[in-house]
Structure formats: structure tokens, C-alpha cells
Amino acid sequence: xxxxxxxxxxxxxxxxxxxxxxxxxxxxxxxxxxxxxxxxxxxxxxxxxxxxxxxxxxxxxxxxxxxxxxxxxxxxxxxxxxxxxxxxxxxxxxxxxxxxxxxxxxxxxxxxxxxxxxxxxxxxxxxxxxxxxxxxxxxxxxxxxxxxxxxxxxxxxxxxxxxxxxxxxxxxxxxxxxxxxxxxxxxxxxxxxxxxxxxxxxxxxxxxxxxxxxxxxxx
Length: 219
Hints:
Endonuclease Iii, domain 2, Endonuclease III, domain 1, 2 domains, 12 helices, elongated
């Protein structure tokens, strides 16, 4: 049985107390650079992206220059990032579209954003929320893991179902901030490996956490 709206909101309040200053950790100087950083962050850590992008953006700071960049030159700048070969192709192709079609301005709509190479619903939601302040709830691996462990949704819920449940349960004005809060909670507390269940303020109502603590105590 999944949690009620009131219970999910209470969980978020507890997470906010742990991480009151949660915010994006990707570094970028412009909206276009932020879009590129988010594309690069798929299945990669923000740390690895932030190590690679200074060199990338120094060489190709805007859509026009990146769109004209040689593929091998871009690959060399981001090779520390997972899936760098396909990501290099995607960011070059996206840069061309941003420059040629949108005259160096990022599109705002979900429909236009997800047409860009390398941009899926999660990336589009991140950009819409962070750059345009449009109420959005991006679901990454951390948000999905936390939502399932805390039984916001069933274990079989799709990423879209997770997003829909969170949008239903949480105030629209809080979606962007709650997204960051859940990411920090999943990245630094309710981690994929060795979660800090024993010190978690949500342990009393978390079946996953109680089972995990029992297993650890049984060793």
C-alpha cells in the first residue's frame, strides 16, 4: 500500500530538515551550458560532469561554437564522463538546433525540449524548472529510489508514474525545490549502497529501512 498525500508531504518536511539548502550541483554560466551539463549528467555523477565542463565550455562556450566543433575534439573534452561518445554527438547536434532553429535561445516547452538529441523528459523537467522557473518535477535515479523505498509508489511504478504521484502529492510551488531535496536525500543519505537507515528520521515508517537495519544487526 502506498502513502497518502499527507504522509508524503510529511516525509518531504523531514528530508528538508536534513538538507535545507538542497540545490543543483551542476555548474554552468549560461542556460545553454546548463542544458549541456544536464545532458552530460545522465548516468554520470555531477562531480564528473563538473570536472569535464570547464574545459569543454572554455573551448566551445555557446551553441554556435559547439555546433561547429569537431566530434573528436568534443569527445576529448568529456571522455571522463560515462557514455561520452554518444553524448558528444548529442550535444553537438543539440547545439546546432539551438543555434539554427532557436537563434541561441533555449525552447521552454516540454514538446520542443524532448525533440533535442540527448534530451528526455527528466532533462527537460530539470531545464524547465531550473532555467525557466516552470513548476516541474524531474525524476532521476535518486528520486525514483527514494520514492520506492518510502512507498510513495509501488516497486513496479514507471518513472512517469513516480513523477505523476509526486506532482499529485506535493504543492506545485514546491516541485522544483522538493526535487532537489529528494536528490540530496538519495545522494547523501538514502544511498543505493549502505543507506544511513539507522540514523534516518523516517525509519519508524520505512519498511525498507527497518528490514535493512534488521539485516545489519543480524550479521
